[in-house]
Amino acid sequence: LRLTETAQLCDEDPLRFEEYELREHTQVLVIGGGPSGTTTATLLAKEGFDVTLVERASFPRYHIGESLLPSCLPILDLIGARQKVEEHGFQIKRGVYFDWGGEEWEVTFGALVGQRMHSFQVLRAEFDHLLLENAKSRGVTVIEGFGVESLCFDGERPTSAVCASVSPDRQVIELDFDFLIDASGRAGILATRYFQSRRYHQVFRNIAMWGYWRGAKRLPVGPEGAIAVCSVSDGWFWGIPLHDGTLGVGLVTDKEAFNLQKKQGRHPNQIYQEAIRQCPRIADLLASAELTSDLRIERDYSYTSDSFAGPGYRLVGDAACFLDPLLSTGVHLAMFSGLVAAASIASVLRHEVDDEQAAALYEETYRQAYLRMMVVVSTMYQQYRGKESYFWEAQQLTLSDCDGVDLRQAFLNVISGIEDLQDAQMTLDVVLGHMSKVLDMQRALARDKAGLDGMSPEERERTRAKVQFSNLAVARFSLSPRDSIRGLYVVTRPRLGLAHVVPR
Ligand SMILES: Cc1cc2nc3c(=O)[nH]c(=O)nc-3n(C[C@H](O)[C@H](O)[C@H](O)COP(=O)(O)OP(=O)(O)OC[C@H]3O[C@@H](n4cnc5c(N)ncnc54)[C@H](O)[C@@H]3O)c2cc1C
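Above are the sequence and the flavin-adenine dinucleotide SMILES. Below is the predicted complex in structure-token form.
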């Protein structure tokens, strides 16, 4: 009903159209210039399509989300921005240091088999600006300082957008398009304004408070440039060293605990400072430091949309779903979804597949990547039993080590986000072998009725649940011929797109 109303509103209001200074057509319109928007736009422009990106802010603009996973590297390669990012001077991040539930451990990305992996801690204003400039240089038409105010639909298919400048003179442009990428982040124009499809999870209903400190100590433990993740009684802290010499320190706390403290008359700044005092590691880093920024506060509730794709549109990055920042997965998911969305649209525009199939592939692929990360985060929150239990859970999710021996490796794979990229054919040879073994193992387990019969009822239930979950988490990745969705899977070579499984 809302879609029809919107369409009628646009059609019945011709006078408004006449006011528009410009009416243009573009093959693909991307709303938002964050990492998901620039990844999708750049990849499609590199494939030769006509892409326009509209961004409300004028870059550089502030954004939270500074700690990246190594999985961003191959995507930076694909969009042609790797060298610029490497040379910019961002803090190199070689891993993560955890002080979690009374135990300390660290993860070094370089431990990934045969690969020297690293990532970056980035000032997002600079990182996002660099990606936006890169998009322009790769042929994307970027319109900055314009917000998409409304969309028109033909049935369920979005067909045009009204964009207005945020400047006082309020210039208006109408853009017709063949495809729409909603990369508008947490604003999520399609899910929140048109489809009402955003659902907040019951878990991870947290509040985050953060600021930037000057004069902080370097972390004396952990890999070079590591993010420190330290639990306190009502939540956890991040400590992110940045190349401007500041340390970003954020507290993620339960919303109920936060509200209760506020009711008791405590100012957020007091809550933040008191929590720092409770956290020996962070308190030590900040012993002689000074908070040089305002304290920022954001609800970081996790959510997903009922649908991530439909006729002529895709929701990418935070516009589709958001996951608690515990494992710094946001930019990874943003860029990964941008890659898969671009592949799905490129093939439709080249008439290789129909949009329904491509949308289904995108939807399932992004949902699986999100779900996998979500379960790891939830495991971290639920379990204070010790680090090996996290590793076990990660094993159930990724099963990258099929012999069940190297739990650390499995955990590392999940938190570095590398599995999704392996799936996406970056290092296809390695991953195909792994995934095939994993799937065979699961199928064998599911078929092993005799084995199940020999178990205690609790053990049988647990095993069934594991198999069920494993199937959910890995069985429909669509990123290899073997696990195609409706006969399709994602390829990055020789051109970005979807490939048909060749029947034997
Ligand atoms: C407290 C907190 C801590 C986090 N920490 C991390 C971290 O350490 N590491 C990590 O990887 N992730 C982290 N994240 C998540 C990360 O910030 C996001 O996942 C990531 O920025 C998503 O990228 P995106 O491109 O989808 O959206 P964004 O980066 O939000 O980009 C969306 C863009 O769309 C523009 N826009 C919105 N509406 C319109 C409109 N109508 N018209 C035109 N433009 C529009 C906005 O101006 C914005 O530039 C954190 C998030 C929170 C809340």
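Residues 1-20, 389-407, 424-443, 465-477 have pLDDT under 50 and may be disordered.
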